[in-house]
Amino acid sequence: MANALGTGTHKRKETYANEVLTLARAETNIYDDFSEDYEIDEVTGQINVPTRDEEVKVSDYDIKAGIELQTSGTDYLPLPVDKDYGVNELVDGYEAEAVPDNIKAQRLDSAGYSMGLKKEGLAIKCLLTGTNSDDTEALTVDDVYKKIVKEVKNMKKRNMKVASMRVVITADVEELLLTDEKFSNTSGTLGAELVREGVIGKIAGVPVKSNYLLDDENYGDKNIEFIVYDKRFCQKYEVWKKEPSFEDLKDGKHIGASALQGRQVGGLMVTNKLGVQIKKKAGE
Fold first, then answer.
1. What angle do CA 217, 218, 220 make, to 5 degrees?
2. CA-to-CA distance for 172 and 169, rounded, in angstroms?
3. How much is the pLDDT for 188?
4. Helix 101-127 vs helix 17-24: angle between axes, to the nearest 10 degrees?
5. CA distance 183 to 202
6. Cβ pair 251, 209 in contact under 8 A
7. CA-CA distance, 267 to 111, in Å (whole number)?
8. Can you give the pLDDT at residue 4?
């Protein structure tokens, strides 16, 4: 909690940024995969994400002649900070300093849950700007594993790295996969870190996670079956515009009341559309 602000008539203000974000993470197994490889222009404040046009070349070294100097370029993509959202939850009957601990905990839990859903929806919508697979046939028990392997293989051919790739699947696809013996056998090889991340197995070496919001029309697309993405090409930026705290309401309408208030701004982007492969079934 925050220390007392100054002296004299200043009242102690408690902020709850860490608590809210910790609670939000329980709902964000896609949003948390987005990287934060950005630089901030000190003059303009613009958020820039560095991207390379090619990998560093390796050549044989000649003792007499040395080695030719190679060049490759690093470009910077501006990450738009166009997401602005917050919480403003009424606590009636209590001024800020008098809010009981149990009500604080209840409001913080609710704020974390709601903010987590908001962030996850933004991340899913961002992934949908990637590349759509040509395959629109609905997955079946017989081909689900094989088709995911195929899409992962295509990603590898694009120079996407297994270590930074993830496959995220809907609840329906998870049900299909759990009948596949090859997939089920991979769950025993997962490390503790992957389990904490929500990984339920691996396909072609790539961790697989389920997400029940993918095909929810409020957050994703009802026709989505799975998405394969390389985390290096999924970028995010977020900062508290106002850290969450309980504040007295002085709006001339509420008497002896307060509210949990907090506001975040940020942005998300896919920096390489080939780094995200989306598998949808044909629309109904």
1. 55
2. 8
3. 78
4. 50
5. 7
6. no
7. 20
8. 42
Predicted pLDDT at 91: 95
How far apart are the C-alpha atoms of 95 and 104, rounded to whole Å? 12
Q: DSSP string of the chain?
A: -PPP-SSTTPPP--B-HHHHHHHHGGG-TTGGGSB---EE-TTT--EEEEEESSPPP----BTTTB-PPP---EEEEE----EEEEEEEEETT--GGG--HHHHHHHHHHHHHHHHHHHHHHHHHHHTTSEEPS--SPP-TTTHHHHHHHHHHHHHHTT--GGGEEEEE-HHHHHHHTT-HHHHHHGGG--HHHHHHTEEEEETTEEEEE-TTTT-TTTS-TTEEEEEEEGGGEEEEEEEEEEEEEEE--SSS-SS-EEEEEEEEEEEEES-GGGEEEEEPPP-
Backbone phi and psi for residue 242, each to the nearest 5 degrees, phi listed first = -145, 120
Q: What is the pLDDT of residue 51?
A: 79
pLDDT for res 10? 44
Tell me how far apart the alpha carbons of residues 119 and 125 are, in angstroms, rounded to a whole number.
10
Tokens describing residue 4:
């007392």
* pLDDT block averages, 10 residues each, the chain of length 284: 41 81 92 94 85 68 79 78 95 94 95 96 97 96 96 95 96 94 84 88 95 95 97 96 95 93 96 96 82
HEC per residue, 106-166: HHHHHHHHHHHHHHHHHHHHHHCCCEECCCCCCCCCCCHHHHHHHHHHHHHHCCCCHHHEE
Cβ(254)–Cβ(209) below 8 Å: no
Strands in 276-280's sheet, in edge-to-edge order, are: 131-132, 276-280, 224-230, 165-169, 206-210, 199-203
> pTM for this one?
0.85
